[in-house]
Amino acid sequence: MNIQLEKMKQNQECERRKRIAEEKHKEWVHKKREEERRERKRKLSKEMAEKATRELEKMQLQEKADIKYKEWLKKKRAEEAEKKKKEKEKEKEREAELQEKRTRSEKIFKEWLQNARNKPQPVLNGYGFPHGKSTGLY
Questions:
Q1: Tag placement on the chain: N or C end, fewer CB within 10 Å?
Q2: What is the mean pLDDT of the chain?
Q3: Which intervals hold domain Coiled-coil (predicted)?
């Protein structure tokens, strides 16, 4: 009976140890899963933060690029306007020169015309030809 009692106590002790081992195992598995879940959550949070940072940097770069493009475009338009202005000024100068040339030419032509009226007419019957034609045979 003592042996049976002893065996029973040993069986109970063995079962108790098994239960404790199972509980500890379950607890360990639970802790491990909890830790893994926290780790995943932390990694996800870190990835989201990095993604947000990249997006922010990308937006900032885009804004800088837009600003630089607008500045470049403004500068280019100003250069084009300046170029057109210079071309118009050159065209006006050319027109003024042409006008001055025309005026000078007209003045010279009028002077020539005035002088041409006062010049003596050439002799029509020159060189012995009456009316500018030959009148007979040699």
A1: C
A2: 90
A3: 4-135
Alpha-carbon distance 50 to 55, whole Å?
A: 9
- Tell me the CB-side half-sphere exposure of residue 23, using CA atoms within 13 A: 6
Read off the pLDDT of residues 95-106 as tens digits, 9 standing for 90 and up: 999 999 999 999
Residue 127, pLDDT score: 55
Span 69-85, average pLDDT:
98
Flag whether 127 is in a domain: no
Q: Is residue 130 part of a domain?
A: no
Residue partners of 131: CB distance under 8 A and separation at least 6: 124, 125
Report the domain count for the chain.
Answer: 1
Amino acid at residue number 18: K
